[in-house]
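User: I'm preparing a small set of examples for a lab meeting where we compare how different chains pack in three dimensions. I only have the primary sequence for this one, and I'd like the structure in token form so I can line it up with the others. Please keep the answer compact; I'll paste it straight into my notes.
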Amino acid sequence: AEEMFQRAIDADPKHAHNLGNFAQFLFCRGDNERALATLARAKFEDDGSNPALSLEIAFYEFAHGPKSQRPPALKVIHNLVTQGVRSPGWDLAENVRQAAKDGFRPKTWLARLADVIVDKKPAKVLADWAAWRSAAEDERGQ
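Assistant: Understood. Below is the structure token output for the 142-residue chain.
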């Protein structure tokens, strides 16, 4: 799989979707250093024309990036989710598992967030999460 991702990226190094998917693959394998570098490229190349991709990229950044990047990533996620953007059929369970293995806490909220993003649960399941409410407040304060 890694070889196929690399071939796709070599063919089009600015293809945000391929970069985002490769970053997810690397995160799930625990190769965080390469994944973060690939995610940064995906984020740079993401022109916003595919909101579901933007949502996935923000989720990967939130789940796997440095703690300092979590609030801005969650703000992006909140904004897109509020607009109704979802990524149905996408599987983020392995990302949740790997993020928890890498020390992400609280895992339960990350799992709920993933379920909202893939359209398994409504956004209201996040209403009691302080970080989610804070992201909403940050968004209104802009």
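A couple of notes for your slides: The CA atoms of residues 18 and 99 lie 21 Å apart. The longest helix spans residues 16-29.

User: Perfect, thanks.
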